[in-house]
Amino acid sequence: MKKNVLKIRLLASVLAAALMLTACSTSSGSKSDRDDDDDDEVVEETEEEETEPTETPTPTPEPTDTPTPTPEPETWFDSQGLSITPQGDFTYTTEWIMWSDDYSIGSREPGTSFEMPANFTITETTDGVADGYKKLIGTYTDDWASFFYSYTPIVSYDTSLGSVKPSTWISAFDRYTGVSFEPGDVTIPIEYEGKTYDVMCQFDFDYDYDYDEGHLVDIFTCTVICPVDYDGTVFHIGCGRTYSAELGANDDEPYESIDYSSPLMLDEFPFYGSEFPHVYFSLSNE
Fold first, then answer.
1. 11, 30, 48, 103: which sits with the fewest CB atoms below 10 Å from its CB?
2. Residue 199 to residues 33, 95, 190, Cα–Cα distance (Å)
3. Which sign, positive or negative, has the C-alpha torsion 221, 224, 230, 233?
4. Concatenated DSSP letters for 204-257?
């Protein structure tokens, strides 16, 4: 019985030793296998695909309320389609009118229209006026006798030149409203954009002559007295009275019947819109 027990214990020891050897062999082999696997492992490099840049959309700005600029109010002058002529030499269309009963001077018959050469300048000053006011002096000159005779000496003005003369009208008005500054020496209230400007116009006439050379220079002066901050003065020059063949005289009636009891618009005068357009001037040439 004891021998059998010993045999069993011996067999068990052998089996235990064998199991231990097997376990060590397996463990060693597993480590070697792992090392071999690590050596055989190939690291593959992956190429990153180049991505095209994407455009970032520009943000759409939110609409803003932009205030619309208020247009300048149209002046009466602009509404009539009129334009300013630069100061200096100019011409205007007029006609010969009677100066006396003896008008038989060849082709210079009254009623004959022609282009009149002249000169016009404007000066500004505060001399001789009340504080806060200024004067705009418009000076018109024409050597119409020289033009009439083409610089041929005249024997006598009484008999040769006293029969006809050019029809000339010079005055001023407000460019914003079209109100005329006539008649002279009367204060005309100009109301514009909530303000009232008191304006007065004065007229003067003189002449210069040289019998030997045949010069007779008309000098018309139109002076506008107005506030220093007023800039609406426009001077105008052109044909005024005309000759009537039917009457055999100058047609003065349209001008003699003008009612100056209240301010007049420029387009209420007989010459406005006639076949003889006026020429317009301003201090700034604008």
1. 48
2. 119, 31, 7
3. negative
4. EEEEEEETTTTEEEEEEEEEEEEETT---EEEEEE--SEEETTTTEEE-HHHHT
CB 235 within 8 A of CB 139: no
Token couple for 104: 């038989």
Distance, CA of 270 to CA of 241 (rounded, Å): 9
Backbone angles phi, psi at 125, to 5 degrees: -155, 155
In 3D space, the residue among 268, 234, 224 whose CA is nearest the CA of residue 84 turns out to be 234
Q: What is the DSSP string of 111-142?
A: T-EEEEEEEEEEEEE-TTS-TTEEEEEEEEEE
Phi first, then psi, for residue 200 (nearest 5°) are -135, 140
Question: By the 8 A CB rule, do 90 and 119 touch?
Answer: yes
Check whether 133 has a pLDDT greater than 70: yes
Contact 86/279 with Cβ under 8 angstroms? no
Residue 223 amino acid letter? T
Model pTM score: 0.70
Looking at residues 33-38, what average pLDDT do you find? Answer: 48
Token pair for residue 82? 């009129």
CB 108 within 8 A of CB 259: no
pLDDT at 48: 53
Query: Which residues is 217 bridged to in the sheet?
Result: 208
Question: pLDDT at position 154, please?
Answer: 39
51's CB contacts (< 8 A; 6+ apart) are none
Q: d(Cα 138, Cα 221) in Å, to the nearest integer?
A: 6
Which DSSP letter does residue 167 get?
-
Q: Is residue 59 reached through a cis peptide bond, with omega within 30 degrees of 0 on the bond before it?
A: no
